[in-house]
Write a structure and sequence with these properties.
The chain has about 140 residues and is an all-alpha fold. The protein contains 6 helices and no strands.
């Protein structure tokens, strides 16, 4: 065999197979960084560093992937949170105000009886339930 000649075809196939294998493994290795950059995650650079430094361990790769997949507050969003350091606890608790529900519209006893009868006819309530609700409704009417 001359020094400048082509290697046998089985060596070429092995090199191609190994090249494709390393390419697939590399893409899987940097998948958390790809996800973070595709989602425009606010901590994508930190995720990249963690992915490159600790991605060889399954735990480091998993942490980077979970962090990349998490929803995060964006600067200028309407949430009360925002960017705070590493955002280890990304979604801040939202403040809500508890209010009483609006009152139900007032219905006449006749309308309520018609509604109950309709429920009985459709089979949504039994005759026993209908009688109990009717007695309760008529008891409320007589006390007024």
């Amino acid at each position: 065999m001359h020094p400048g000649s082509q290697p046998p075809s089985d060596d070429t196939a092995l090199v191609i197979f190994l090249g494709i294998g390393f390419l697939i493994a590399g893409i899987i290795y940097i998948a958390p960084s790809i996800v973070a950059f595709r989602r425009n995650h606010p901590n994508r650079w930190i995720i990249l560093v963690i992915n490159v430094a600790f991605g060889g361990t399954i735990i480091g790769w998993g942490i980077a992937m979970v962090w990349a997949m998490r929803a995060a507050h964006r600067v200028g969003s309407t949430g009360s949170g925002g960017e705070s350091g590493l955002n280890l606890f990304i979604n801040d608790v939202k403040k809500i105000q508890v209010v009483d529900p609006p009152p139900l519209p007032a219905t006449s006893p006749v309308q309520e009886l018609e509604r109950l009868h309709d429920l009985l006819v459709r089979g949504a309530i039994s005759q026993l339930e209908f009688d109990g609700l009717k007695a309760k409704l008529l008891g409320g009417v007589s006390s007024q």
